[in-house]
Specification:
Layout (H helix, E strand, L loop, with lengths): L7 E4 L7 E7 L3 E6 L4 E6 L5 E3 L7 E3 L5 E10 L2 E8 L5 E5 L12 H6 L6 H19 L14 H11 L5 E4 L7 H14 L6 E5 L4 H12 L4 E2 L2 H8 L11 E5 H6 L1 H8 L5 E4 L14 H12 L2 E5 L8 H11 L7 H17 L1 H4 L6 H7 L8 H4 L6 H14 L6 E2 L12 E8 L3 H4 L7 H5 L16 H12 L5 E4 L3 H15 L3 E4 L5 H12 L7 E4 L14 E4 L6 H8 L11 E8 L3 H12 L10 H17 L4 H24 L3 H8 L5 H12 L2 H13 L1 E7 L2 E6 L15 E4 L2 H6 L4 E2 L5 H12 L5 E6 L9 E10 L8 H4 L3 E7 L14 E2 L2 H56 L7 H19 L2 E12 L2
Parallel strand pairs: 10-15, 10-16, 11-13, 11-14, 12-13, 14-15, 17-22, 18-20, 18-21, 19-20, 21-22, 25-26, 27-31
Antiparallel strand pairs: 1-2, 1-5, 2-3, 3-4, 6-7, 7-8, 8-9, 23-24, 24-25, 27-30, 28-29, 28-31
Helix pairs in contact: 2-27, 2-29, 3-4, 4-5, 11-13, 15-25, 22-23, 22-24, 23-24, 31-32
């Protein structure tokens, strides 16, 4: 070995030292400094376990300053190498003396590592191959973005998420009724869009009361860490210069924040968002003459954003015009004329009615056929050859009509009537004697004070001392000791006073939640209520608690007063009445005898049946009978007036309910529910959940890299780093991390990380293995008495890969694809299965490598030839699969656009561009040499 100061060498026995620099040489010894680890070593010149870092043209080299270049040529002067090439970042032609090569640089070409003694045990080779295999399967799986979500497998949610998540820049309105899981649907769509490369920058805009809940839900459900943007954060980022919204990829902010700070709204508009989500979209009031500030802010962002998801439980709450306005945010070109929209809706209503016989397997009459014919002009045989007795033919026709449906591509709405799994609701009302302090207020003819008399200015400080509802409330809590109780009242003042009364008079643990609190304070209050042990028994909310928050772990709801609007009543009950609720809901309502409170209670219960069942007609009935209702509340003693009001209400309720049933858009319901189309998909997720493939793989991976996996109980493990851990792992706490591979355990226990193929820890673990050089070269001993001693095999891993912008979704068709080839000494492909390989000590391994060097180099040529042949086959298969899938989808959209204006030109343009670009990129995919293992037989 010839040593000179400044040369770079690697230690064969201590590879973790990094790249060493020769700092002293004499006739017997050489001294090396290893800057990366701060260590110095002195070796005997003739027997030093060192390998010279000597790179060749076409290899990449990193400078100690951080930049990289591809080597064009190598020169040597006075024993030192100089690498010449072009910098990757600046494209400048530079020369890099080896002394200034990055201290962490390692040999990364498999054959060079093997021939220079930089090899590892056989398990590292197997682990590299397993990681490539598992990543390939994950990227090409149709379950991508679904298996890792911490959610129940609820059909309509998964159906909507799959339908919308697979689109380019989806623009849809998610309008499921309260409690059906719109937030989960949005989370699944976002997750799928990000993992598939369709989106990378996402903006979520929500009411201020829901900011932290969305933050927690995104992290808990799909492991996406969003950043909250408010005035304080933006001011801090602005001091650093630039647009603060460019500092994060995933952002949550409140709608109030944007409307109150026009400069930040403008900065948000200047960013390129791939997807925007707007929750509680029914707050976006609109009229052609005077759209609200909130509507205008969202409209400006929607015009600049590729994909938009609007969420609302009540799509027509503010009237049909406002429903049109929200659709207008999704597609302003199509929804530009309200009257035209109304006519189209009537047309599609006729179509929906026409398909009713098909759903029952009954023949169509001539009028129904005529209603369907305009929608099958591109495929007339679907109707001409229809045999209603054949379910498959009916399904094909209905599927085609779903594609053609006017708003069916833009609007998804499921109702509780079509979804099972909800609890029963039971009203328990309590008649109380009205105190004289309140009775005097009836003369003031103020509806608000009649409903919440404690809000009168003269009584605000004293009402808890005489109001019988306070004592009743405390008694109720004592009767249900140990049970969680959610209480909602109209005002923050009432909530605060009631909470204080509970604390002082009973000592019961109570938490309060109102609009005067900061978002963090509200979150703490909700979390205190949610704690199973040592948490609050009761959470007392103002009206702000009736929107967005989910408390289905509680089964008792106290309505301390009643809201004047039916939709608000449904929102209140909807905090508990949700999918996932495990018990019947007890709705407790106190009221004063012969008061406005009793009138409103009877109106809701006897007229609308709104306590024990959802009431989709409530708002329409309220708008028509608002005046009569108020008159009855002001004349609570007039039993005849109240009786007539309830009869009129019940009659209108039945009438509107019948109209709703007749006007149901059955096509829209089928399209939203996924019935008959999502079952196999859910079965596949369930099979993935039941499979032990991930658990076995991660156990092997953890064991190899030195992470201890201790069994905690039958469904969870504790992961802890060991002293011998080879790699740090993002997400692994030094004190240990609790994990589970079981969905039900993850849903039951919040503290458990739900490990899945989608989980960042699983992906990071594989990326860490593949980014390192460990396992690129390996030597192993095999023991087979039937094969001669000294017989050997060369086993290689190649990877077929290409590079493309994420939005093209190359990984859907050609992710890095592993090619594993094994040859014998004659260069023939071997099918030998190495069921168990033994590690070989370094000295023996180096002797084997030295003896077989010529044959190894000859075998490499054969391995590369075989890899290129297999790579060409894989390229052709990937190209055919891509052209078939995208070509079929492009043809479908072209055809549908003729009958469904919801198919946007940009969708077709994107698909055409994707098809052309991927064809070129896949054709240029290259085979890369990834790892090499020498296996020698012995007895």
């Amino acid at each position: 070995m010839q040593f000179s100061p400044g040369q770079r060498w690697l230690s064969d026995t201590e590879s973790d030292l990094g790249l060493g620099t020769v700092i002293d040489v004499n006739h017997r010894q050489v001294t090396l400094l290893f800057p990366a680890s701060g260590e110095t070593r002195v070796y005997a010149k003739q027997t030093s376990p060192l390998t010279r870092l000597a790179l060749e043209p076409d290899e990449m080299v990193s400078s100690h300053e951080g930049w990289q270049m591809r080597i064009d040529k190598v020169t040597e002067k006075q024993g030192q190498l100089t690498y010449h090439g072009v910098r990757e970042d600046t494209l400048q032609t530079v020369a890099l003396i080896e002394t200034f090569v990055d201290h962490k640089m390692q040999l990364n070409q498999p054959h060079k590592r093997l021939l220079n003694g930089q090899f590892d045990g056989p398990q590292w080779f197997d682990l590299r191959y397993e990681c490539w295999q598992q990543q390939y399967q994950h990227h090409t799986s149709p379950l991508l973005g679904f298996v890792g979500a911490r959610v129940d497998l609820i059909p309509h949610q998964l159906h909507i998420a799959r339908q919308v998540g697979q689109r380019y820049a989806p623009r849809v309105l998610l309008a499921d009724e309260v409690g059906l899981g719109k937030t989960i649907e949005a989370a699944l769509i976002i997750h799928q869009q990000i993992l598939s490369g369709r989106a990378s920058r996402v903006l979520i805009v929500v009411p201020s009361s829901l900011v932290h809940q969305w933050l927690v839900e995104m992290l808990r459900r799909v492991n996406l860490a969003f950043a909250i943007f408010d005035a304080e954060r933006c001011q801090s980022l602005a001091e650093e210069g630039g647009n603060p919204f460019e500092s994060e990829q995933l952002v949550i902010c409140s709608l109030d924040f944007l409307t109150q700070h026009s400069d930040y709204l403008q900065q948000a508009q200047q960013c390129d968002w791939d997807l925007m989500v707007v929750d509680e979209a029914h707050h976006l009031q609109w009229s052609a003459e005077a759209p609200s500030i909130e509507y205008q802010a969202v409209e400006q962002l929607a015009q600049k954003t590729k994909g938009v998801l609007l969420l609302t439980a009540t799509p027509e709450q503010l009237g049909h015009q406002s429903h049109f306005a929200r659709l207008r945010l999704l597609d302003a070109d199509r929804f530009h004329d309200y009257q035209q929209f109304v006519e189209q809706e009537q047309h599609y209503a006729q179509l929906a009615e026409a398909i009713s016989p098909l759903l029952e397997g009954q023949p169509l009459n001539r009028q129904q056929q005529a209603a369907i014919e305009p929608f099958v002009q591109t495929e007339p045989q679907l109707l001409q050859d229809l045999d209603v007795g054949d379910p498959a033919q009916c399904h094909r026709l209905i599927s085609h009509l779903l594609d053609c449906h006017g708003t069916g591509r833009l609007l998804f709405r499921n109702s509780r009537s079509g979804i099972s799994g909800f609890p029963r609701r039971q009203l328990i009302s309590y008649a109380l004697q009205q105190p004289p302090q309140y009775a005097r207020l009836s003369e003031q003819q103020n509806i608000n004070l009649l409903m919440s008399p404690e809000r009168h200015p003269d009584l605000i400080d004293s009402w808890v001392q005489f109001d019988p509802r306070v004592e009743w409330f405390i008694d109720l809590l004592k009767q249900h000791k140990g049970k969680k109780v959610l209480a909602i009242c109209t005002s923050a003042g009432t909530a605060l006073a009631l909470s204080e009364a509970v604390r002082v008079q009973s000592g019961i643990r109570a938490s309060v939640f109102h609009e005067g609190m900061s978002i963090v304070e509200r979150d703490k209050a909700a979390a205190y209520f949610a704690q199973r042990e040592d948490g609050a028994q009761v959470l007392i909310c103002s009206e702000i608690g009736s929107e967005g928050r989910n408390f289905q772990f509680a089964h008792h709801l106290v309505l301390f007063d009643l809201p004047a609007v039916p939709d608000l009543l449904e929102q209140r009950i909807g905090r508990l009445d949700r999918i996932g609720q495990q018990a019947d809901i007890q709705i407790h309502v106190p009221y004063f005898n012969q008061s406005a409170q009793q009138v409103l209670l009877d109106w809701y219960h006897q007229g609308l049946d709104a306590f024990e069942h959802t009431c989709p007609t409530g708002n329409a009935v309220y708008q028509q009978l608002k005046t009569q209702l108020q008159q009855a509340m002001l004349s609570a003693q007039d039993e005849t007036l109240c009786y007539e009001l309830i009869n009129q209400t019940a009659s209108l309720h039945r009438q509107f309910k019948q109209q709703l049933e007749q006007g149901r858009d059955k096509l829209l319901e089928i399209n939203s529910s996924g019935k008959g189309t999502v079952d196999d998909f859910i079965d596949n997720i369930y099979d993935s959940d039941q499979s032990v493939r991930l658990e076995k793989f991660m156990t092997y991976l953890f064991d190899t890299i030195g992470i201890i996996q201790e069994e905690n109980d039958e469904s969870s493990y504790l992961l802890k780093p060991s002293e011998a851990m080879h790699h740090s792992l993002p997400g692994l706490d030094e004190e240990g991390t609790m994990v589970t591979y079981e969905r039900q355990a993850a849903l039951q226990f919040e503290q458990l990380q739900f490990l899945s193929w989608d989980h960042p820890m699983v992906q990071h673990a594989q990326d860490t293995i593949l980014a390192d050089v460990k396992g690129k070269a390996s030597v192993a001993i095999y023991k087979d008495p039937a094969i001669p001693v000294g017989f050997f095999w060369l086993e290689a891993i190649f990877v077929l890969a290409a590079k493309a912008p994420k939005h093209l979704q190359l990984q859907r068709f050609l992710p890095p694809t592993p090619i594993r080839i094994c040859i014998d000494p004659k260069g023939n492909v071997s099918e030998e299965q190495f069921d168990y390989l033994n590690k070989v000590n370094r000295k023996t391994a180096q002797q084997l490598i030295s003896a077989l060097t010529d044959k190894i180099e000859t075998g490499l040529t054969q391995l590369e030839l075989l890899a290129q042949q297999q790579g060409e086959t894989l390229r052709k298969q990937s190209l055919q699969r891509m052209e078939s899938l995208l070509g079929e989808e492009l043809h479908r959209l072209h055809t549908l656009q003729k009958v469904n204006p919801s198919i946007r030109d940009e969708e077709i343009e994107h698909l055409s561009h994707q098809l052309a670009q991927l064809g070129e990129i896949i054709g240029q995919a290259e085979v890369q040499f990834e790892a090499l293992r020498l296996v020698v037989n012995t007895h």
